[in-house]
Amino acid sequence: MTGWQIAVLDGGPAHGLRVKVSGKPRVIQVTYPCQVEATSPDGVRAEAVHLYRRDYTITDEPLRYGFDVASP
After folding, report:
1. How many CB atoms sit inside 10 A of residue 38's CB?
2. Which parts of the chain are beta strand (E)?
3. If you average pLDDT over residues 58-70, what whole number do you get?
4. What gap in Å lies between CA 22 and CA 1, rounded to an integer?
5. Average pLDDT, the chain
6. Superkingdom of the source (predicted)?
7. Could you give the C-alpha distances from 25 to 2, 3, 17, 44, 69, in angstroms and in order?
8. Structure letter (DSSP) for residue 37
9. What is the residue extent of each domain of the chain?
């Protein structure tokens, strides 16, 4: 396990977002809230899920994670 490192997300809806990661995870999950209709049951919520995969050719900060258009 390593200390905290800066990573930048490349492509997709979170393009350019900088985050701190620990341990160089292989995947970062980003979620965005979706609106639900007023007729939805109380407490129901929906989120869009987007995955970013680590670019292993980058070894120094900032690490880079590319948008995975095929996931999930």
Report:
1. 5
2. 4-10, 18-22, 27-34, 46-54, 63-67
3. 95
4. 7
5. 92
6. Bacteria
7. 10, 12, 16, 30, 18
8. -
9. 4-67
